[in-house]
Amino acid sequence: MTKIIYSLTMLRSCRELIRKYDKTFWNSFRKHSKEKLAAIIPLTPDIGKSVFAMNNKFVPAYIAWYQAFMESGLSQQEAWENIWMMSEKMITTIPKFLRHSAGKAYLNGFRKKLIIQLQRQQNNELHPYDWQVTYREISENTFELDFTECAIKKLAHDLNAEGVLPGLCRLDYLLSHFMGHGFERTKTLGDGDECCNCRYHIKGICEWSPEKGFELRR
């Protein structure tokens, strides 16, 4: 699955990266990110039947892209912005009406599966690299998750790629915007806070506006 995510995103982003830089940059970036992905995948722990297992499939690609961008001489901010663009290209492969339907179905299904995840967490049965959370039911439409441990942060630390955060954290706003549900947050582990305090609305709106900055909505 990770290789599919990587390949689809590269295919969708090729033209934009060539336009922004040039074909020589693209060829070098493609070569180095592919090499890094091949090295990272075997080092990525399998967290088993976790509710966050799919999230974990994206992590090696994001770290490979970040490392390749940084080694190309880009600034950290520019690497983040390129990853945001690539993620947007990936998710908009899916038509809008399907994205919004899938977004609502995902969050509803996620809440049900989370019960099992929390039971396993309480029994200390989760993989050490799994996400650790606190869950609060607010209403039929709204729930909150505080993430106290993050698999992305742990793997990024292992691979000396912690700079991918907090830029990668901001993707939650992008995904929520394009999937058609509401999302709010003021703290993240990637920013050095004690948790990621996420609030989700199954029916809602989330603005994706990186040009406004993320001071008040980490």
What does this structure look like?
Strands 1-2-4-3 form a 4-stranded antiparallel β-sheet. Helix 1 runs antiparallel to helix 2 (23-40), helix 2 (23-40) crosses helix 3 and helix 4 runs parallel beside helix 7 (171-179). The protein has helices spanning 2-20, 23-40, 53-71, 76-91, 96-122, 151-158, 171-179, and strands spanning 132-137, 142-149, 182-184, 196-201. The protein has 218 residues and is an alpha+beta fold. The model has no long low-confidence stretch (mean pLDDT 96). The longest helix has 27 residues, at 96-122. Strand 1 and strand 2 form a beta hairpin. The protein has one domain (2-212). The chain contains 7 helices and 4 strands.
Mind telling me the C-alpha Rg?
A: 17 Å
- What is the spatial order of strands in the main beta sheet? 1-2-4-3
Fraction of residues in helix:
40-55%
Cα separation of the termini: 28 Å
The tally of domains stands at 1
Query: Which range does the strand content fall in?
Result: 5-15%
Global mean pLDDT: 96
Q: What is the 3D shape?
A: globular
Strand elements, count: 4
Biggest beta sheet summary: 4 strands, antiparallel
Poorly predicted spans: none
Provide the structure class: alpha+beta
H/I helix tally? 7
Secondary-structure element string: HHHHHEEHHEE
